[in-house]
């Protein structure tokens, strides 16, 4: 594979850790990164260490879409905690995404590491790239099933522009969706896909408040709108009510529609749940994908994929995000445009 | 994905069962099948049930390359056990592969389900397709590491012709190689990939004598040439000496070079072993892929992929073979030619 220049939109936990992981990867050069107040571009390659140090407190709990300009729990506005703008490589800007789009002729892939509290937020970001005639890859790590349809609605637009959009390319959906698609290969009929995750997020909590907020929206009695409007204190209260350990059932995770659109099974046969523990860095339960199906010779069985408890959520999101990004670039360079889920980048079912 | 017309070269256990599995798959139409004495072609789609009934005793222990024309353990020469030629859809032929090549303008993909006792046998079959200007996919389920280099040497030839060659696309290498590539995504550095398989092959033994023969070649003290020259009785003697349960260590399985060429790890960090039990249909051990690596945040862990003991070797070879075939067709239609391993069809590492 040839070299890949990529950009990161958003420098919260996922954006920053992806930049860090890319330092370990061959052929990947980060050339642009932005948050809501700043943009850093260097087509020779960003100095990731410097940028990470500058953005270390860039926790962006609200994903940059709720309390713009606030300082409580958002990006610090001054000193070394001012986000991307604090980097010596960066410029302050009012139009960070447009600034990256302006440079996109020389960018092969863009990781959209922005929380998606408004369901059409990431689709609308993609629209802006398409409107600018971007030819390259967009990758996101979104979770919500309903967003996939919004992206599929844009297939023609992506094809006209030359965009290969890889959606749901984190851990779940992402790594685990791909594992389900692969585990399904033993069977001719899939009865059930169960995705069960464990996340221990004590020391990583500050860095992943956006993710936790989005998880809260999956709890009974809460909507995505509720979670977006809640203050950080209200989020803390919910967590405290669960003594810091929250179990989720039947989450709206896009694994279901991503497996269905790849022809693996019906969306309704996919269940996603898990346990989040913010009191410990140990995982409260082992992350497992179980695929139950029937073989051509009439046997029923369950293939399983298990992540070691020692692998952090960050490792399981950021490695796959870059892995799918590479797969997307390969597709893009072969002239394949449109919307791809993780399971579309696996052997066909 | 659009409809795919495919052919099968060889109607031993793998070829026949792949035809059977394809009946459960959308968009896959088998249009040609051959063994050494017969060829069946129907561009509207073969009658698989009839063909399977006709070839049921087509055990081809020697893979069609050793005792041509013999009747001991090879294809029966008359009646309903005469192989493909016994099918009402087929014609007898002296040149079965050439006959399929003659039809290949209308064939999207060819599964090469021939044993590869001569290491260059499958590469030479590919040469014949390339010489005829075939534009499409070739898929094999070969095992030996050294064959991959022979295929890579032909990359230019494949690209000139328009061939996408997907190699090692069975269970191992194949499904398990892909699982290893996916499991590696949590890590930035891979320490070790261990592939361990269990096969219970009592009722399926007659149908898979070629596979067993090839396995014997992996035993200490035996070479591939030994295994090819041995009579069926000599093979039986080896099996009896092990009381029907043979354990294999450090097998030369192409998983190693396929993972290395995909950039996942060094070939020497991959080990393949397993247990074959011809006295039972139960698996003697659980087939498992273990990938041990280091995460970006410095943790060491082992991700695992396990196949249910109820899934047969056949299910785990034939599903993936067709899955990778579909992935290969997609690549081919996008204009991507050359040699692809299973891990090349996964997210990049």
Task: Describe the protein in words.
The structure is a homodimer of 349-residue chains. Chain A is α/β, with parallel strands linked by helices. Chain A has 2 domains: 4-172 and 315-345, 3-Layer(aba) Sandwich (Rossmann fold), CATH 3.40.50.720; 178-310, no CATH class. The first copy, chain A, has helices at residues 13-22, 48-54, 96-102, 121-131, 145-152, 155-161, 175-183, 209-216, 224-229, 232-241, 255-261, 313-333, and strands at residues 4-9, 28-34, 38-41, 90-92, 109-112, 136-140, 163-166, 189-200, 245-248, 270-277, 288-294, 300-306, 338-340. In chain A, the strands form 2 sheets. An 8-stranded mixed sheet of chain A has the order 4-3-2-1-5-6-7-13, with helices on both faces. Chain A has a 5-stranded mixed sheet with strand order 9-10-8-11-12, covered by helices on one side. In chain A, β2 and β3 (38-41) form a beta hairpin. In chain A, α1 crosses α12 and α4 (121-131) runs parallel beside α6. The model of chain A is unreliable at 59-81 (pLDDT under 50). At the A-B interface, α1, α7, β12 and α12 of A face α1, α7, β12 and α12 of B. β12 of chain A pairs antiparallel with β12 of chain B, so a sheet runs across the interface.
The interface involving the most residues is between: A-B, 58 and 58 residues
CATH topology of the largest domain in chain A: Rossmann fold
Tell me which oligomeric state these chains represent: homodimer
For the record, the CATH architecture of the largest domain in chain A stands as 3-Layer(aba) Sandwich
DSSP helix fraction of chain A: 25-40%
CATH superfamily of the largest domain in chain A: NAD(P)-binding Rossmann-like Domain
Task: Encode the helix/strand succession of chain A as letters.
Answer: EHEEHEHEHEHHEHEHHHEHEEEHE
What's the shape of chain A? globular
Summed up, the helix count of chain A is 12
- Spans of chain A of at least 5 consecutive residues whose pLDDT stays below 50 are 59-81
Count the strands of chain A? Answer: 13
Query: How are the strands of the largest sheet of chain A arranged?
Result: 4-3-2-1-5-6-7-13
Query: What profile does the largest beta sheet of chain A have?
Result: 8 strands, mixed
